[in-house]
Design goal:
Length: 141
């Protein structure tokens, strides 16, 4: 069982045919990105065509979940009842990709200690039996 950081009232992401494999892997606590099998570039969010070579062939690569804060902001106005404030929204530079960045939340971290370049690690939040959300927290240095 994972730790919970946000209330059930938070809006949930919607999967479609393109993003479904990402969410299925997330439900198994694996952070995956698409990798073009023609040119090898990774991409996030998932897309039907490679932005580099226009190939439609791709597979999925599992990442470590480590990275660093590329940038962040503190949100002081809630979008859902019982949302903890301030909420840290961060752009995470993902280790092991071609410079991919993911927008997520920093949780379980003191907002005053968040800084650009700070190392982070993945933490899964199980919002339901089939929905796990990748979030990040400051990594021990
Ligand atoms: Zn490609």
């Amino acid at each position: 069982m994972s730790q919970r950081f946000f209330p059930d009232t938070m809006p949930s992401p919607l999967a479609d045919a393109i993003t479904l494999p990402f969410w299925e892997a997330a439900a198994e606590h694996r952070l995956v990105v698409q990798r073009c099998t023609a040119c090898g570039r990774t991409r996030l969010p998932p897309a039907p065509v490679c932005g580099s070579c226009q190939s439609t062939e791709a597979d999925w690569q599992t990442l470590s979940g480590r990275g660093e804060v590329y940038t962040y902001t503190l949100v002081h106005r809630p979008i859902a009842p019982e949302q903890p404030l301030p909420t840290v929204i961060a752009v995470i530079a993902l280790e092991g990709s071609d410079g991919l960045r993911m927008i997520s939340n920093l949780v379980d971290s003191d907002p005053d200690e968040v800084a650009i370049g700070a190392p982070v690690e993945l933490v899964w939040e199980d919002m339901g039996p089939d929905l796990s959300i990748p979030r990040f927290r400051l990594a021990a240095t």
